[in-house]
Structures are given as C-alpha cells and as structure tokens.
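Lecture 7 notes: from sequence to structure.
We start with the chain below.
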Amino acid sequence: MDSDQAYRELDVPASLLELRRELDGIDAEIVRLIGARLTTVTEIADAKQRGTASLRDEERERLVLNQVEEIAIDLGISASFIRGVFQSIIEHSVSLQAQRLVDGDPGGLSSVSPSSIRYFE
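Predicted structure tokens for the same chain:
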C-alpha cells in the first residue's frame, strides 16, 4: 500500500495529501544533496590520501558550522538545530573519510594521528 492510499483510507483531505507529497519531494531532494555531499567527501579523502592533509580540519569544520548557522538565521530557522544537523553530517563525513583512508592504506591509518579522528566534544 502506497502512502497516498493509506492517507485516503484515513480520510486525509486532498489539500493535506498534496502538501505531504510536496514534503516527500523536498525530503528526496535533501537525501540527493546529502548523497552529492558524501560523494565530494570521498573525493576529498582521496585527495588527502595523496597529500599531507590531516583527516580532521577543525578550523574548516568551525567555518562550515558558522556559515550554515548564518544561513539558518537569515532564513528564520533555529541555528542550534541546523548546527546539530551539520555536526551529524560532518561526523559521518569524517567517518567516511577515515574508512576510505583505511581501505586505501593496507597498513591502516598510518598517516593519520589518533587525535585527528576524535568527534565533537
């Protein structure tokens, strides 16, 4: 049973059903954008593997968090909510990069210091 059929059985008004379809489309776009971001994250991991950059760049993370908070404030969205969302995204991105570096380095994270993979405190 698809969601439209389930909503009809619950006697959900057509206007609400249309808004929920719109929300479903927005959710799908958010997931696609996160997927695009994670693709770029893996490319960054590959670049880090070829160079000397450390796994974690705390200054860059602070910059990203500050930027998304400013955007949220401009849009009337809770800055702390957006900060939490992006902290989760960044943590996942760092984990993905660490795994990518492990997969590309048969000896493990030999070029990465243990302190560079800690999570937000």
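Points to note: Residues 91 and 119 are 7 Å apart (CA to CA). The chain has one domain: 3-117.
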